[in-house]
Every structure is written in structure tokens, then in C-alpha cells.
């Protein structure tokens, strides 16, 4: 697993082109390392989103409690 694989996977997920990973890999366009990096990247992104949602919710609920 190289930095290039991680970068490629990250860009694919960021640009919303994750659906292209499987077809491209089927014709040998992406290495298994890139696909593995994409899975790792997807999980990291999901965790980050969950964390951000939690922090936003906490900040919102604190503000509501303070103002009411």
C-alpha cells in the first residue's frame, strides 16, 4: 500500500467517483492496493462524518441549553 494508492483512493471518494472503483478494477485499471486504500478511506470518511455530526450536535445542544 503506497501513498499514491491512498491519494488516488482519497481523490476518487472525494470526487464522488467511488462507484467507478469496481468497474475500473475489473479491467485491471486499479491495483488491489488502491481498492484496499479506498475501503480504508471510506471507513475513515464515515468515522469523520460521524464525529463531525456528533460535535455539531453537541455544540448545537449546548447553545440551545445556554440560550433557553
Describe this structure in words.
One of its GO terms (molecular function) is catalytic activity. With 68 residues, this protein is an all-alpha fold. The chain has one domain. 79% of the residues lie in helices and 0% in strands. Helix 1 (3-14) crosses helix 3. The relative contact order is 0.13.
Per DSSP E runs of 2 or more residues, the count of β-strands stands at: 0
Shape assignment:
rod-shaped
Distance between the termini: 51 Å
Structural class: mainly alpha
Percent helix among the residues? over 70%
Count of the separate structural domains: 1
The main sheet comes to: none
Give the SSE order as H and E letters: HHH
Number of helices: 3
Task: Indicate the low-confidence ranges by residue numbers.
Answer: none
> What is the alpha-carbon Rg in Å?
17 Å
Instruction: Please report which band the strand proportion falls in: under 5%, 5-15%, 15-25%, 25-35%, 35-45% or over 45%.
Output: under 5%
Mean pLDDT: 64
List the helices and strands and how they pair.
Elements lengths: L2 H12 L6 H6 L5 H36 L1
Helix pairs in contact: 1-3
Summarize the structure.
The chain has 3 helices and no strands.
Primary descriptors:
single chain; 68 residues; mainly alpha; 3 helices; rod-shaped; Aminotransferase-like; catalytic activity
Amino acid at each position: 500500500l503506497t501513498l499514491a494508492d491512498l491519494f488516488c483512493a482519497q481523490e476518487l471518494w472525494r470526487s464522488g467517483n467511488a462507484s467507478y472503483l469496481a468497474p475500473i478494477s475489473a479491467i485491471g485499471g486499479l491495483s488491489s492496493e488502491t481498492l484496499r486504500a479506498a475501503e480504508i478511506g471510506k471507513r475513515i470518511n464515515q468515522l469523520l462524518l460521524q464525529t463531525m455530526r456528533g460535535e455539531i450536535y453537541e455544540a448545537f445542544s449546548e447553545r440551545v441549553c445556554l440560550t433557553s
